[in-house]
Amino acid sequence: MVARGAHGRTGLCAPARAGGGPARAEILTLPVFKHGDLGLGVHLGMALPLGSYGFSSRAGRAPHFSLRLTRWAGSWVAWGGELGGELFLNHKSPSVAGQTAADATYQAQAMFAGLFGRLNLFETSSWSPYVLGGGGISRLSVKGSAPVPVCWPLSGACAPGVNGSSTAPYVSGGGGLEFFI
User: Is the dihedral angle over the CA atoms 17, 21, 23, 27 positive or is it negative?
Assistant: First the structure.
């Protein structure tokens, strides 16, 4: 390979490795979000409901999933939409408080669709903290059965079984760290 130096001299440069690649370190550049850039995210996690109206004790934990499409309005701000849900599978619990036999079965599904806004806190770095907030519509479906009448969470009904659903608006907020690999 022939190279011309700064003073106009020409010399031969030996390949640094097999294949003739450069001997210097490669310069890594971090992504910079530009207006119109699109992002697609798949989020997997665990839903850990808080102890409201007995739902957490009846439903337990659940896998969480969502699909998020993001459109960048600039390097700091983005907006987008999200679809997702949680699936609480046949969680067993005592039908009567204080009882040790787990004879009541409860399952629930939560599905949601919404819009959000996102704000990056640092513009370019190997990692970027961000905050986001949004809202949308959520649907919760529940099914439960027990050998004796039970007062079920959320429905307020006291019966041997419950089967129902409700749809309502939701508001969400959060934050996170995005790492570039």
Answer: negative
How far, in Å, are 34, 48, 63, 170, 178 from residue 117 at the CA level? 16, 24, 24, 15, 16
Low-confidence ranges of the chain (pLDDT < 50): 1-19
Query: pLDDT tens-digit profile of 95-111?
Result: 666 666 667 788 889 99
- 58 SS3 class: helix
Among all chains, which residue has been given the structure tokens 């995210």? 41
Burial class (CB in 10 A: 0-12, 13-18, 19+), 80: buried
CA angle 106, 112, 114 (to 5 degrees): 160
Name the residue among 88, 66, 85, 180 with its Cα closest to residue 132. 66
Query: Residue 174 and residue 45: Cα distance in Å, rounded?
Result: 14
Report d(CA 58, CA 157) in Å as an integer.
14
Length of the chain, in residues: 181
In whole angstroms, give the CA distance from residue 64 to residue 2: 58
What is the Cα–Cα distance from 152 to 159, expressed in whole angstroms?
8
Q: What is the pLDDT of residue 24?
A: 59
